[in-house]
């Protein structure tokens, strides 16, 4: 079982480190206009096969931050978001945002329009995902009859999130909040799926996080609709019945599994560093995803 080791978050002037995930670092702003608010930094780290790799992808944090900001704007008519400012310390400019400090709901809010990953595993075992019965005969990559809300709870570092039923969410956050989380998650998925489809991209699924502000309003937080939180598939290559190529990490996964890497996934050893050419191709792939989705040039 891989136990990801996350590199120490860099010290930032005027901010105190709070928490690091595989890819993002969270700080509290110490003083000034934004004192008490949070600084969320997207690093250039990349994970594959549950390991945070030793190699970084230069520019990845900035691509994902800009993509997320682009989506927040396009979702603003549906749900308020936590972004306050992109005026951040020089060291992290372009890949960090100052955000409102919310009381986070301890639920990973996932919407799925297509069946794959943990949803597929659960379906194969039980015919259901998160207590939602699905028709027989679905395959890896099948489009679902309608998008479904499949919440999960965050497991400890190095563990996978656990899919839970809607009733479990009700028990955790109450009926009213659970209803709002489901409604907002499906609304965000619906709007984003439609925007992506116009660009020839299938949004198979996405994971959102929400918090509550002091007024009791449910606010969209974290980073949204990036390749780290969502599965994007090129629509013209979609073919149910096989695993769909991941837009972003396929180059990394393919190299790690190739003879050239010398890595044996079952050995329990961490993966080796990526060759420069693999780093560069992966970087271009992230930029390509940004340009394709947003229609903007990098
Ligand atoms: C926060 N995480 C990621 C929820 C927490 N705007 C915010 N205000 C307060 N806290 C957070 C944010 C944001 N974004 C986000 N940690 C703290 C971890 N998730 C995991 C799932 O549960």
Question: How would you portray this structure in words?
Answer:
By secondary structure, the protein is an alpha+beta fold. It folds into 2 domains: 15-99, 2-Layer Sandwich (Phosphorylase Kinase, domain 1), CATH 3.30.200; 103-248, ATP-grasp fold, B domain (D-amino Acid Aminotransferase, Chain A, domain 1, 2-Layer Sandwich), CATH 3.30.470. Helices cover 29% and strands 26% of the residues. It contains 6 helices and 17 strands. Strands 8, 9, 12, 15, 16 and 17 form a 6-stranded antiparallel β-sheet that branches. A 5-stranded antiparallel β-sheet has the order 1-2-3-7-6. The mean pLDDT is 95. Bound molecules: ligand Q0N. Ligand Q0N binds at residues 19, 26, 38, 40, 82, 99-102, 104, 106, 108, 154, 209, 211, 221-222. The site of ligand Q0N has 17 residues, from strand 3 and strand 15.
Give a short overview:
The chain is α+β, with helices and mostly antiparallel strands. 29% of the residues lie in helices and 26% in strands. It has two domains: 15-99, 2-Layer Sandwich (Phosphorylase Kinase, domain 1); 103-248, ATP-grasp fold, B domain (D-amino Acid Aminotransferase, Chain A, domain 1).
How would you describe this structure in keywords?
alpha+beta, D-amino Acid Aminotransferase, Chain A, domain 1, six-stranded antiparallel beta sheet, Phosphorylase Kinase, domain 1, 29% helix, globular, single chain, 2 domains
């Amino acid at each position: 079982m891989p136990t990801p080791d996350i590199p120490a978050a860099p010290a930032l002037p005027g901010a105190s480190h709070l928490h690091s995930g595989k890819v993002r670092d969270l700080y509290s702003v110490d003083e000034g206009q934004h004192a008490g608010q949070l600084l969320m930094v997207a690093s250039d780290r990349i994970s594959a096969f549950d390991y945070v790799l030793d190699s970084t992808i230069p520019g990845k944090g900035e691509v994902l931050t800009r993509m997320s900001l682009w989506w927040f704007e396009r979702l603003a008519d549906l749900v308020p978001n936590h972004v306050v400012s992109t005026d951040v310390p020089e060291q992290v400019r372009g890949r960090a945002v100052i955000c409102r400090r919310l009381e986070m709901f301890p639920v990973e809010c996932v919407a799925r329009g297509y069946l794959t990953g943990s949803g597929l595993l659960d379906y194969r075992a039980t015919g259901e995902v998160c207590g939602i019965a699905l028709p027989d005969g679905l395959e890896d990559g099948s489009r679902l009859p309608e998008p479904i809300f499949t919440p999960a709870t965050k497991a400890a570092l190095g563990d996978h999130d656990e899919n839970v039923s809607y009733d479990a969410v009700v028990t955790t956050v109450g009926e009213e909040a659970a209803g709002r989380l489901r409604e907002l998650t499906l609304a965000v998925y619906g709007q984003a799926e439609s925007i992506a489809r116009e660009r020839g991209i299938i949004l198979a699924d996405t994971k959102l996080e929400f918090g509550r502000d002091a007024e009791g309003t449910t606010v969209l937080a974290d980073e949204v609709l990036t390749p780290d939180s969502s599965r994007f598939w090129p629509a013209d290559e979609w073919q149910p019945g096989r695993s769909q190529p991941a837009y972003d990490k396929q180059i990394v996964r393919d190299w790690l599994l190739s003879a050239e890497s010398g890595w044996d996934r079952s050995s329990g050893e961490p993966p080796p560093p990526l060759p420069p050419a693999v780093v560069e191709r992966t970087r271009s792939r992230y930029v390509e995803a940004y340009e394709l989705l947003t229609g903007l040039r990098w």
